[in-house]
Amino acid sequence: MKTTNIILLSILILIGSVTFFFACKYTYDSKVATLKEKAKKAFIEALDKELKARHLEGDLSVSFNSKSLLRAELPDSVYLIDASGRHAYRLDPEKHRMNITENGNIRFMHSIAFIKKPICPDSLNMEWSSQLQAVGLAVKPVLCISISDEKGHTKDQYSAGSEWCNSSNRIFTIYIGHACEIGIMGYLPYSAWSMVHTEFFLYLLLIGIIICGIYRVSLILRKHTRLVYHAEMDELPITHPVLQEVVATPTRVYVIHEKIIFYAEQKRIEVDGLEKKIQNQSSTLLELFLKEKENDYILEDNAIMEILWPDGTGTSERIHKAIGRLRSCIRQIDDTIDIKRSIGIYQLLL
User: Fold this and answer.
1) DSSP 3-state assignment of 9?
2) Which of 111, 130, 312, 345 is most exposed, with the fewest beta carbons within 10 Å of its own?
3) pLDDT tens for residues 147-166?
4) pLDDT in tens, 228-242
């Protein structure tokens, strides 16, 4: 594979990898957001049933109107009175914002209801699981009930099977009660692989097909461009200085310019009567160019490799170095002579 093809393929793979990563990330974030929304709505339905079973009336829907809550003036503390007396709770603004309802009367009713009969994590979790299945989420959830007292001490209770719970699997956190003294955290067992495993293979296949398609099209376009270039080169009338070859002499003498004679067999160039020796490889390469007079002194890469490296060890890099040595040699003799590089060919310009 040529160096240019390797570079092109590497660039396409790099772009495809970046695109693949962001496509998977976007899909994962979107699915997690949808999962959290469905799971939270299902929990609200489960909690609503739990509250109705305690014969509470009122609007129990969740409200996220954080702007109105932040504008309201919050007291530092709220008070709850039960059989043991009056209890002062410090009101946390963040918990206040995340309470299940904005209605203070309903919050008070929640506190009274759950003081008389505390929430059982397992029973509420079973109801939540049923609601999740109703919306097409067949997973085993876990609930954590956190109850705070007036001194700020909290007591956490988990439903069964909570060994895998951690912050990365937390779906929501809400608070209940007049003093936001009851916190409820919901957990679902999901992972990045479980969320995007189907899209992972789909995106991988799609990007692989696109990369292969672009690579094939680029090769075809480059080949077409090369053919068009060769066709245009054949049609152009190129004039060169008169080059004379003494065919009858056994030494293979080439008259390049009026005062420049190349003795191929002896591997030397004569300029104004002065002789200059050239290396074996450069001599062979120069003679190859001069023999292509009818072809405008054009040599293809393959032709050069077959003559200079008949054992098959020739490469584009070795050709480039050989041409560089010949170019340096002939420029010392006449700087008007040059060797031009085109796609897959070299041309001696006399």
Assistant:
1) helix
2) 312
3) 887 777 889 999 998 899 99
4) 877 776 666 555 555
**262: β partners:** 254, 269
The answer to whether residues 183 and 148 touch, using CB atoms and an 8 Å cutoff, is yes
> Given this model, what pLDDT does residue 202 score?
95
- DSSP per position, 187-237: E----HHHHHHHHHHHHHHHHHHHHHHHHHHHHHHHHHHHHHHHHHHHHS-
- Using only C-alpha atoms, what is the Rg of the chain? 42
The CB density around residue 318, as the number of other CB atoms within 10 Å, is 15
E strands, 47-169, are 77-82, 85-90, 142-148, 154-158
> What are the residues facing 143 on neighbouring strands?
186
Buried b (16+ CB within 10 A) or exposed e, 255-292: bbeeebbbbbeebebbbeeeeeebeebbbbbbbbbbee
Residue among 266, 242, 241 at smallest CA distance from 252: 266
> Distance from first CA to last CA of the chain, Å, rounded?
33
Kindly list the strands in the beta sheet with 298-300, ordered across the sheet, starting from the edge strand earlier in the chain.
298-300, 345-349, 338-342
* Tokens 């040599």 sit on residue: 299
H or E stretch covering 107: helix 104-116
The model carries a pTM of: 0.54
Instruction: Enumerate helices (H) and strands (E) in the chain, giving the number of each.
Output: 9, 14
What is residue 56's predicted lDDT score, i.e. its pLDDT? 53
The neighbour count for residue 322, using CB atoms within 10 Å, is: 21
pLDDT at 71 over 50: no
Using the predicted structure, report yes or no on whether residue 57 has a pLDDT greater than 70: no
Average pLDDT of the residues in 287-299: 88
